[in-house]
Amino acid sequence: MKLHLLGASCLLALLSACSSGEEEQTKIPEIPSAKQIPITLNCVASTTSANEKANVGTRVTDWGYESQDKIGLYVVNYNGTTPGTLQNNGNHVNNMRFTYNGTWTPDNEIYWKDESTKADFYCYFPYGTPADVTSYAFSVKEDQSTETAYKACEFLYGKTSGVAPTAEAVNITTKHMFSCAVINVKAGNGFTDETLAQSAISVKMNGIKTGATINLTNGIATATGTAKTILPLENGNNPRIRH
Protein backbone atom coordinates (compact mmCIF):
# COMPACT_ATOMS: atom_id res chain seq x y z
CA MET A 1 0.00 0.00 0.00
CA LYS A 2 2.82 2.38 0.79
CA LEU A 3 4.47 1.59 -2.53
CA HIS A 4 1.30 2.41 -4.43
CA LEU A 5 0.94 5.71 -2.61
CA LEU A 6 4.55 6.59 -3.33
CA GLY A 7 4.09 5.75 -6.99
CA ALA A 8 0.97 7.88 -7.21
CA SER A 9 2.73 10.79 -5.57
CA CYS A 10 5.62 10.61 -8.05
CA LEU A 11 3.22 10.43 -11.00
CA LEU A 12 1.30 13.46 -9.75
CA ALA A 13 4.52 15.41 -9.35
CA LEU A 14 5.59 14.54 -12.90
CA LEU A 15 2.23 15.58 -14.34
CA SER A 16 2.38 18.86 -12.46
CA ALA A 17 5.87 19.56 -13.77
CA CYS A 18 4.83 18.80 -17.35
CA SER A 19 1.73 20.97 -17.06
CA SER A 20 3.74 23.89 -15.69
CA GLY A 21 6.28 23.59 -18.52
CA GLU A 22 3.58 23.60 -21.21
CA GLU A 23 2.05 26.80 -19.81
CA GLU A 24 5.41 28.57 -19.89
CA GLN A 25 6.05 27.49 -23.48
CA THR A 26 2.66 28.62 -24.82
CA LYS A 27 2.51 31.99 -23.00
CA ILE A 28 2.19 34.85 -25.57
CA PRO A 29 4.47 37.82 -24.85
CA GLU A 30 2.75 41.19 -24.38
CA ILE A 31 3.15 43.68 -27.25
CA PRO A 32 3.76 47.23 -26.00
CA SER A 33 1.13 49.69 -27.25
CA ALA A 34 2.22 52.50 -29.58
CA LYS A 35 2.83 55.83 -27.88
CA GLN A 36 0.11 58.39 -28.63
CA ILE A 37 1.27 62.00 -28.84
CA PRO A 38 -1.46 64.61 -28.30
CA ILE A 39 -1.71 67.47 -30.80
CA THR A 40 -1.73 70.91 -29.17
CA LEU A 41 -1.74 74.36 -30.77
CA ASN A 42 -0.20 77.77 -30.26
CA CYS A 43 -2.30 79.81 -32.68
CA VAL A 44 -1.42 83.49 -33.02
CA ALA A 45 -2.59 86.12 -35.47
CA SER A 46 -0.93 88.73 -37.61
CA THR A 47 -2.33 92.24 -37.25
CA THR A 48 -2.07 92.68 -41.03
CA SER A 49 -3.74 91.07 -44.00
CA ALA A 50 -2.30 88.15 -45.95
CA ASN A 51 -1.05 90.58 -48.61
CA GLU A 52 0.72 92.93 -46.22
CA LYS A 53 3.96 92.72 -44.29
CA ALA A 54 3.34 90.57 -41.25
CA ASN A 55 3.38 91.95 -37.73
CA VAL A 56 2.85 88.88 -35.60
CA GLY A 57 0.97 89.15 -32.34
CA THR A 58 -1.84 87.55 -30.42
CA ARG A 59 -4.48 89.82 -31.95
CA VAL A 60 -7.37 88.73 -34.13
CA THR A 61 -9.10 92.10 -34.22
CA ASP A 62 -8.18 95.43 -32.69
CA TRP A 63 -9.41 93.92 -29.43
CA GLY A 64 -7.40 90.68 -29.55
CA TYR A 65 -8.38 87.05 -29.14
CA GLU A 66 -11.24 86.76 -26.74
CA SER A 67 -12.52 84.01 -24.50
CA GLN A 68 -14.63 81.47 -26.41
CA ASP A 69 -13.26 82.42 -29.85
CA LYS A 70 -13.26 79.30 -32.02
CA ILE A 71 -11.04 78.13 -34.87
CA GLY A 72 -11.20 75.14 -37.21
CA LEU A 73 -8.20 72.84 -37.75
CA TYR A 74 -7.37 70.34 -40.49
CA VAL A 75 -4.33 68.06 -40.28
CA VAL A 76 -3.07 66.24 -43.39
CA ASN A 77 -0.41 63.54 -43.07
CA TYR A 78 2.56 63.03 -45.37
CA ASN A 79 3.00 59.84 -47.36
CA GLY A 80 6.67 59.26 -46.73
CA THR A 81 8.29 62.50 -47.90
CA THR A 82 5.31 63.57 -50.02
CA PRO A 83 2.77 66.04 -48.56
CA GLY A 84 -0.85 64.96 -48.60
CA THR A 85 -3.70 66.94 -50.14
CA LEU A 86 -6.36 68.64 -48.04
CA GLN A 87 -9.73 67.00 -48.74
CA ASN A 88 -13.29 67.71 -47.67
CA ASN A 89 -13.19 64.49 -45.62
CA GLY A 90 -10.75 61.71 -44.84
CA ASN A 91 -7.93 63.90 -43.50
CA HIS A 92 -6.05 62.87 -40.38
CA VAL A 93 -7.99 65.61 -38.55
CA ASN A 94 -11.17 67.00 -40.10
CA ASN A 95 -12.22 70.50 -39.06
CA MET A 96 -11.62 70.01 -35.34
CA ARG A 97 -12.96 72.94 -33.35
CA PHE A 98 -10.60 74.59 -30.87
CA THR A 99 -11.85 77.10 -28.30
CA TYR A 100 -9.70 79.88 -26.87
CA ASN A 101 -9.57 80.47 -23.13
CA GLY A 102 -6.00 81.59 -22.61
CA THR A 103 -4.95 78.45 -24.48
CA TRP A 104 -6.58 76.54 -27.35
CA THR A 105 -8.62 73.48 -26.35
CA PRO A 106 -10.10 70.98 -28.87
CA ASP A 107 -13.62 69.59 -28.59
CA ASN A 108 -12.02 66.13 -28.51
CA GLU A 109 -8.46 65.04 -27.85
CA ILE A 110 -6.53 64.47 -31.09
CA TYR A 111 -3.22 62.71 -31.66
CA TRP A 112 -0.42 62.44 -34.19
CA LYS A 113 -0.61 59.40 -36.46
CA ASP A 114 2.60 58.00 -34.96
CA GLU A 115 6.01 59.15 -33.78
CA SER A 116 7.48 59.83 -37.22
CA THR A 117 4.85 60.89 -39.80
CA LYS A 118 4.98 64.59 -40.69
CA ALA A 119 1.83 66.62 -41.31
CA ASP A 120 0.55 69.93 -42.67
CA PHE A 121 -1.72 72.05 -40.46
CA TYR A 122 -4.51 74.25 -41.87
CA CYS A 123 -6.31 76.68 -39.58
CA TYR A 124 -9.06 79.26 -40.06
CA PHE A 125 -11.15 81.64 -37.96
CA PRO A 126 -14.05 81.86 -37.21
CA TYR A 127 -15.10 78.22 -36.96
CA GLY A 128 -17.66 77.06 -39.51
CA THR A 129 -18.72 74.00 -41.49
CA PRO A 130 -17.06 74.18 -44.93
CA ALA A 131 -18.73 71.81 -47.41
CA ASP A 132 -15.95 72.44 -49.94
CA VAL A 133 -12.46 73.27 -48.65
CA THR A 134 -11.53 74.77 -52.03
CA SER A 135 -14.51 77.15 -52.09
CA TYR A 136 -15.70 78.12 -48.62
CA ALA A 137 -18.28 80.91 -48.77
CA PHE A 138 -17.95 83.83 -46.36
CA SER A 139 -19.36 87.34 -46.33
CA VAL A 140 -18.85 90.58 -44.44
CA LYS A 141 -21.69 92.72 -43.14
CA GLU A 142 -22.96 95.79 -44.95
CA ASP A 143 -23.48 97.51 -41.60
CA GLN A 144 -20.20 97.40 -39.68
CA SER A 145 -21.01 100.40 -37.50
CA THR A 146 -20.91 98.46 -34.21
CA GLU A 147 -17.97 96.69 -32.61
CA THR A 148 -19.82 93.36 -32.70
CA ALA A 149 -20.64 93.69 -36.40
CA TYR A 150 -17.08 94.73 -37.25
CA LYS A 151 -15.61 91.75 -35.41
CA ALA A 152 -18.01 89.40 -37.22
CA CYS A 153 -16.37 90.43 -40.51
CA GLU A 154 -12.98 89.00 -39.56
CA PHE A 155 -11.67 85.95 -41.42
CA LEU A 156 -8.18 84.65 -40.73
CA TYR A 157 -6.25 81.79 -42.27
CA GLY A 158 -2.94 80.10 -41.56
CA LYS A 159 -0.94 77.06 -42.59
CA THR A 160 2.11 75.38 -41.07
CA SER A 161 3.78 72.79 -43.28
CA GLY A 162 5.92 69.73 -42.70
CA VAL A 163 5.61 69.49 -38.93
CA ALA A 164 7.23 66.46 -37.33
CA PRO A 165 5.41 64.79 -34.41
CA THR A 166 6.14 66.64 -31.20
CA ALA A 167 4.85 66.97 -27.67
CA GLU A 168 5.24 70.75 -28.03
CA ALA A 169 2.42 72.97 -29.27
CA VAL A 170 2.38 73.49 -33.05
CA ASN A 171 2.80 77.16 -33.96
CA ILE A 172 0.34 78.54 -36.50
CA THR A 173 0.19 82.19 -37.56
CA THR A 174 -3.14 83.21 -39.07
CA LYS A 175 -3.51 86.30 -41.26
CA HIS A 176 -6.46 88.49 -42.18
CA MET A 177 -7.94 87.45 -45.51
CA PHE A 178 -9.70 90.78 -46.01
CA SER A 179 -8.34 94.30 -46.14
CA CYS A 180 -9.04 96.90 -43.48
CA ALA A 181 -9.89 100.32 -44.90
CA VAL A 182 -9.27 103.21 -42.51
CA ILE A 183 -10.94 106.45 -43.61
CA ASN A 184 -9.24 109.65 -42.45
CA VAL A 185 -11.70 112.54 -42.16
CA LYS A 186 -9.85 115.87 -42.11
CA ALA A 187 -10.89 119.49 -41.81
CA GLY A 188 -11.39 121.44 -45.04
CA ASN A 189 -14.09 122.75 -47.38
CA GLY A 190 -15.66 124.93 -44.70
CA PHE A 191 -14.74 122.73 -41.72
CA THR A 192 -12.15 123.65 -39.14
CA ASP A 193 -10.75 121.11 -36.70
CA GLU A 194 -13.09 122.51 -34.04
CA THR A 195 -16.26 122.44 -36.14
CA LEU A 196 -15.38 119.01 -37.53
CA ALA A 197 -15.02 117.61 -34.01
CA GLN A 198 -18.47 118.97 -33.12
CA SER A 199 -20.18 117.72 -36.28
CA ALA A 200 -22.19 114.54 -36.72
CA ILE A 201 -20.34 112.83 -39.55
CA SER A 202 -21.75 109.97 -41.58
CA VAL A 203 -19.38 108.03 -43.83
CA LYS A 204 -20.22 105.27 -46.28
CA MET A 205 -18.19 103.30 -48.81
CA ASN A 206 -19.80 102.43 -52.12
CA GLY A 207 -18.98 99.76 -54.67
CA ILE A 208 -17.68 97.11 -52.25
CA LYS A 209 -18.33 93.40 -52.77
CA THR A 210 -19.23 91.78 -49.46
CA GLY A 211 -19.05 88.10 -50.48
CA ALA A 212 -16.07 85.83 -51.09
CA THR A 213 -15.09 82.21 -51.57
CA ILE A 214 -11.96 81.11 -49.74
CA ASN A 215 -9.72 78.25 -50.78
CA LEU A 216 -8.57 76.68 -47.52
CA THR A 217 -5.86 74.69 -49.28
CA ASN A 218 -3.87 77.83 -50.18
CA GLY A 219 -5.56 80.79 -48.45
CA ILE A 220 -6.74 82.56 -51.61
CA ALA A 221 -9.98 84.57 -51.39
CA THR A 222 -12.06 85.50 -54.45
CA ALA A 223 -14.67 88.27 -54.28
CA THR A 224 -18.21 87.29 -55.28
CA GLY A 225 -21.61 88.91 -55.69
CA THR A 226 -22.57 92.47 -56.54
CA ALA A 227 -21.08 95.69 -55.23
CA LYS A 228 -22.82 97.18 -52.20
CA THR A 229 -22.59 100.11 -49.78
CA ILE A 230 -20.90 99.55 -46.42
CA LEU A 231 -21.41 101.56 -43.26
CA PRO A 232 -18.09 101.58 -41.35
CA LEU A 233 -17.29 101.36 -37.67
CA GLU A 234 -16.88 104.84 -36.22
CA ASN A 235 -13.56 105.46 -34.53
CA GLY A 236 -13.36 109.19 -33.99
CA ASN A 237 -12.34 110.73 -37.29
CA ASN A 238 -11.05 107.39 -38.56
CA PRO A 239 -13.96 105.12 -39.52
CA ARG A 240 -12.91 101.64 -40.68
CA ILE A 241 -14.34 98.65 -42.52
CA ARG A 242 -13.35 95.10 -43.45
CA HIS A 243 -13.80 94.26 -47.11
What does this protein look like?
The chain is α+β, with helices and mostly antiparallel strands and 243 residues long. It has one domain: Immunoglobulin-like, CATH 2.60.40. The strands form 3 sheets. It has a 7-stranded mixed sheet, with no helix packed on it. It has a 3-stranded antiparallel sheet with strand order 7-11-12, with no helix packed on it. β11 and β12 form a beta hairpin. The longest helix is centred in the first third of the chain and has 25 residues. It is elongated and about 95 Å long. 23% of the residues are buried. The N terminus is likely disordered.
Low-confidence regions: 1-23, 53-61
Strand arrangement within the widest β-sheet reads 1-9-8-6-3-4-5
| CATH level 4 superfamily | Fimbrillin-like
Specify the biggest β-sheet.
7 strands, mixed
Strand content: 25-35%
Give the integer mean of the pLDDT values. Answer: 82
Q: What radius of gyration results from the CA coordinates?
A: 31 Å
